[in-house]
């Protein structure tokens, strides 16, 4: 193995990140500015062809790591042309940055921030891709019976989720509930305009990463083998030479740095939602960061749920919706729709039960899953 960075510290860091696998979704975006120490990290791994007796190197896995969308993003690209791999990863990073610029609620000039400030009844011009995105959001909000609803911005503000957390009054919760609902967006598909019938505020934490990854897939979906890990959601295409897929680890629901189980993926996206990273204790009570839009309160479930789907946006959305549903309702719901979902349910002693849908068990042979 050859490293383009000679620092022993960075080499050790690379090894740690390679074995850490999937991490619980952070559900927030931050600034797009790249941290200099991260953007300089680049690695190469030479892959010999098992059929070549002379053990000639036919491909290399180029790796890149950069901080964006509130997390450390890791990209890996397998190619016989190293220069091409580096150029493709740089292009992927630009796609992620452009998506963050459009969707981040932390950026005042993003489309979502401008939409949140938009007065009721006033139209805002946008593009066909954003109209298509809003149609998907509306569909999944209706299909999940509002267990997914990204218009929880005012509820998140009431709980001060982004700034430390607090328990709001019943009146504040009720007011926040009134200002939720994708049905309050009006879409003009011909002129690509959006307006609102209520002063609703959107939060992109439950779908932004998935949308960004799908934009990569739309450009490089027929390309060489590659993987993008957005710290809680991963998208893969193809397989490394001599392997049957990319190994992906799902973290322990209470200890996110500890890999709990691992699966191999050849395509699609795996998204994980859980509370181990961002839940807080406020006034000696657990304040979960994933809210139930129907009640205006934190979701009751205290484990994690991972969803695999060919479309990253759907995986991202469904991991949030199923977390809000919880395993008792969510697992039958996933089975009826042939959705690949896996709940990790910890008990008081942190023993973990694995509850997987039939579709998830098909993509993860060899594991002992429980199914009601």
Number of extended strands: 19
Strand content of the residues, in percent? 25-35%
For the biggest sheet, the summary is: 10 strands, antiparallel
The order of strands across the largest sheet is 1-2-3-4-8-9-12-17-18-19
- C-alpha-based Rg, rounded: 21 Å
Structural class: alpha+beta
How would you name the oligomeric state of the polypeptide chains in this document?
A: single chain
What's the pLDDT, averaged over the residues? Answer: 83
Unreliable sequence segments: 1-44
Put simply, the count of helices is 10
Q: Looking at the structure, what is the overall shape?
A: globular
Query: What's the SSE pattern?
Result: EHHEEEHHEHHHEEHEEEEEEEEEEHEEH
Measured distance between first and last alpha carbons: 46 Å
Helix content: 25-40%
Question: What does the model show?
Answer:
- The protein is of the alpha+beta class.
- The chain contains ten helices and 19 strands.
- The chain has helices spanning 8-20, 36-39, 82-103, 111-117, 128-143, 153-159, 170-178, 208-220, 312-336, 358-363, and strands at residues 2-3, 42-48, 57-68, 71-79, 124-125, 185-188, 193-196, 226-229, 233-237, 246-251, 259-265, 267-274, 280-282, 285-287, 291-292, 297-298, 304-309, 340-346, 352-356.
- The strands form five sheets. Strands 1-2-3-4-8-9-12-17-18-19 form a ten-stranded antiparallel beta sheet. It has a three-stranded antiparallel beta sheet with strand order 5-7-6, covered by helices on one side.
- A hairpin with a 7-residue loop joins strand 10 and strand 11.
- Helix 3 (82-103) packs antiparallel against helix 8 (208-220), helix 6 runs antiparallel to helix 7 (170-178) and helix 8 (208-220) crosses helix 9 (312-336).
- The chain is globular, with a radius of gyration of 21 Å.
- Residues 1-44 have low confidence and may be disordered.
